[in-house]
């Protein structure tokens, strides 16, 4: 009898262990399933936390332009062909470019109510470093009758001057804008706010959209926190130190920061290519070349430098040698002290 009870107890224990093992296995399986669901939920949360890229922003995968750079402030005599066109109220109107002695190139939009120009300066204000030239007249391109009509280009005639005041820019002989890539564009107060002084500035851009009548230049893929816009017109577009266009329209909306990791594709200026009006302007330059009028140095050469000559007025035709020595010593002492 005792033997049978022992066998029954043993069988009951076996059944209990089997049942317990089954229950444990099911519990473990449910635990793994729950853990998988949690991982999926966590992954979903992580994915949701990742910000979506902006719709109009792409990475900078293209070759970065060599000349493209942020807006920079020019130094004195860095661009001796630059001119600021002023009104009779001493207000800044537009930028211009010296192309010959007495000739300033700009846009036709900039020729109303102008009075004088300041050449080879770095701001829109008269100071000891600038030279003022009176405006005689202006002449628009024949097809221009107003904004968005004809070629927006004009020449301003000023009084003649000696070649120590400014240099001239050379017009490029290129015949297709497709040859252009990176350009430098100049103007006054490119990112200046209303009421601020307009300093001479320049910026490196990519000539991206080009056709017979317009060059559209952009900036992107650089690292800068300089406020970026172009609040001027009439200024030159340069390539290889030659004039390839003039700015007819600038970008007034400023961007506070540009990153080198994203292509902003910021449109900065529209420019009129010089080859579209070169024959007309060459004729004006040829007619302005009068006998006895000093020719200007071509940029990148600086204006001609002349040493000061001391003239000693006397009543006789000559000076005695001891007087010459005395004057020379006296002048040397003045310079030295």
UniProtKB/TrEMBL annotation:
It comes from the Eukaryota. Residues 57-286 form the Peptidase S1 domain. GO terms for biological process: proteolysis. InterPro entries: Peptidase_S1 (IPR050430), Peptidase_S1_PA (IPR009003), Peptidase_S1_PA_chymotrypsin (IPR043504), Trypsin_dom (IPR001254). The keyword Hydrolase applies. Residues 31-51 are annotated as: Disordered. The keyword Hydrolase applies. Residues 1-25 form the signal peptide. It holds the Pfam family Trypsin. Keywords: Disulfide bond, Hydrolase, Protease, Serine protease, Signal. One of its GO terms (molecular function) is serine-type endopeptidase activity. PANTHER family: FI18310P1-RELATED, POLYSERASE-RELATED. This is (African queen) hypothetical protein.
